[in-house]
Amino acid sequence: MFKRIDAYIRPEKTHAVKGALQNAGIYGMSFTEVKGHGRQGGTKLVGRSGPYMIDMLERIQLTIVVSAHNVDETVTLIQESAATGETGDGVIFISPVEDVVRIRTGERGAKAMTYSGDIDDRRQK
Ligand SMILES: Nc1ncnc2c1ncn2[C@@H]1O[C@H](COP(=O)(O)OP(=O)(O)OP(=O)(O)O)[C@@H](O)[C@H]1O
Ligand SMILES: [Mg+2]
């Protein structure tokens, strides 16, 4: 059982989040530059002709697929390393993944998800 975690984070937090995950042995991840907004609909700036809304805020979408038993730890690490306490800190979505195939080897499932020295490998030692 695998889960996909999609975290929308502040671009300036990318380095800290990546470091926190790597320290814990969570290695595989994708980063995508995205634009969007949350429930405030963006942020208000004041220009010379008055206030205006910026509703396309730059964020990084961090996508990580992990074994289901690693979801809580992964989410906690992201939350702790991405937070400033201000609105716009981001959101995290968690969804199910049916299977994983490593293209090079054809391995599927848990085998395809294991890396030497990763979070699960460390637990076994
Ligand atoms: N429901 C959603 N679906 C898809 N993307 C979202 C959703 N909510 C937020 N995002 C993405 O996350 C980014 C950060 O959202 P944001 O932190 O403002 O969420 P929020 O729910 O408004 O939380 P807060 O109240 O802390 O601001 C947005 O710029 C957008 O890219
Ligand atoms: Mg918001």
Q: Which descriptor suits the 3D outline?
A: elongated
Broad structural category: alpha+beta
List each distinct ligand once: adenosine-5'-triphosphate, magnesium ion
> What is the H/E string?
EHEEEEHEHH
Main β-sheet description = 4 strands, antiparallel
How many individual β-strands? 6
Number of helices: 4
How would you explain this protein's 3D organization?
This protein is α+β, with helices and mostly antiparallel strands. The chain has one domain: Alpha-Beta Plaits (2-Layer Sandwich), CATH 3.30.70.120. It has a 4-stranded antiparallel beta sheet. A hairpin with a 2-residue loop joins strand 3 and strand 4. Helix 1 runs antiparallel to helix 2. The radius of gyration is 17 Å and the shape is elongated. It starts with a strand and ends with a helix. Magnesium ion binds next to loops. The site of magnesium ion has 5 residues, from loops.
